[in-house]
Amino acid sequence: MNERYSSTSGDLAPSALTQLLRRRWARILFILLIMITVFAVITALLLVMRFTADRPVEYADVGEHFKYGSTGGERESGLPYWVFQVMPRVCSKHMPVPGAGYESLGFIYEEGRDLPVGMSKRHNLGMDRTFINCAVCHVSTVRHTPEEKPLVVLGMPANTFNLFDFQKFLFECSADPAFRKDVIVPEIARAMEERGEHLGVLDRHLVYPVAIWLMRERLTMLGGRFGPLLNDTPWGPGRTDTFNPNKVLFNFPLDRIAARERNAAVDFPSIWLQKPRQGMQLHWDGNNVMSEERNKNAAFGTGTTPPTIDLKAIGRIEQWLLTAEPPKLKSEVVDQALAAKGQPIYAHYCAGCHGTNGREFSPPGGDTSRDCLKSEPNDAALYGPYVGRITRIEDVGTDRHRLDSFSYDLVVQLGTIYAGYPHRYCHYRKTFGYANAPLDGVWLRAPYLHNGSVPTLRDLLEPSASRPPTFYRGDDVYDTVRMGFVHTEASRYGRNFFLYDTKQPGNSNAGHEGAAYGTQLSDEEKDALVEYLKTF
Fold first, then answer.
1. In 3-state terms, what secondary structure has residue 358?
2. Quick one: which of 508, 506, 527, 412 has its CA closest to 461?
3. 429-441 b/e with 16+ CB inside 10 Å = b?
4. 4 pLDDT band (50/70/90 cuts)?
5. Which one of 300, 423, 442, 448 has the minimum C-beta count within 10 Å?
6. Which residues contact 46 (CB under 8 A, 6 or more apart)?
7. How far apart are CA 402 and CA 166, in angstroms?
8. What residue ranges are annotated as transmembrane (predicted)?
């Protein structure tokens, strides 16, 4: 009889059954091992894909790209998207209006948008990250009455946005005891639930706790370095200190920087019609004639570095800005007969420095070569005598803090930012005054002078002793009579406006006055000149 079977039932012998079960279990374990391996590989691939992905949110329309597209700043400086969203809840006491959102800082929210204008989003390091882009300084709103729906204008100075207070909020919030994972993560979960989304286990227990810790450490470090600048004269909305933050990054000892270099805030400039500006000495003090270098340095202010800058995205904006035009002031608010009287006054007093009108200010020709040996504008006479050129500080007489802040030492250091890259800076120069800018869209560029110290164009035509010594900045309601934003209200729309004091360092409203600048014209002539400028 075969020993593999019992003598009575024909069943497998115990030893054979054991071997069969072992084989079956071996197959099962082998299959499980394969499944676990496949699962582990897939999980690893998904994690690799998640944490190595670098995807900005993209926009087909160039205007939307300008408002919300990335410059690459999120890669180095990006804030975790959901942490950014809940920070006003977690740190409400540090907002200008306690309990308010980012609108209280002058950010603009368009209907249906989850981020304000000037904030871009990129999936990077396993999460959505957000940071500022060019539009945060170069988009704002305007309305003719408080009840009117504001018009969003691309390319105009962001006169409502308070960058100083935004930076201060980030530093103060990150230093607050409430800025910790057991407070922020539940707020993120609640915010996501309000949108019908769910915070996953990995995000809840690993990704965001680590991100919050890293964000706190980084902002604490930056607050320690940049904090001394925030102890100087507050900038107020629509302004920034352009180059002193660069000195911090270059490790200049702030306590040894001359007082005349501090408190150098200037207005955000308008950025329309860049093509006719090519080759001009601009950037307030005319320190560069190459718009490409100026744009890359501006992108540096949005958190980019040479390895992280998104040149393709910035190039798209540069091309658009070559021909982008400002909107015209409503024709019904312009007295055409009075404007006609103002035209010859403008031609006599203003055209030599600012161009024939709001569109005709460029040379008919001229070399705009990128050759570093050609650092000065070519064919300068074709600009009109002085458009896009420098007026000496002794002649224009305006506040000199911004001029002095751009020092010879800083020029040298700027040349090192893109060292080893094809787009290394080679056109920055120290100058001796301020540049004469074209006046396209001048009605939207209030307050006036480089530091925004004069609220309206009509005030600019008065001697400095007769200009408002204090006024409020940050309103978007437009005064079509005096040409400037309403500056007498302390608050509106749940926002507190900024009281600008011309007696503070860097805030002087002196200069651009005297017979050559039209401040000795009669009131009738001044009114006619302002009316003509409304057509720009």
1. coil
2. 527
3. eebebbbbbbbbb
4. very low
5. 423
6. none
7. 22
8. 28-49
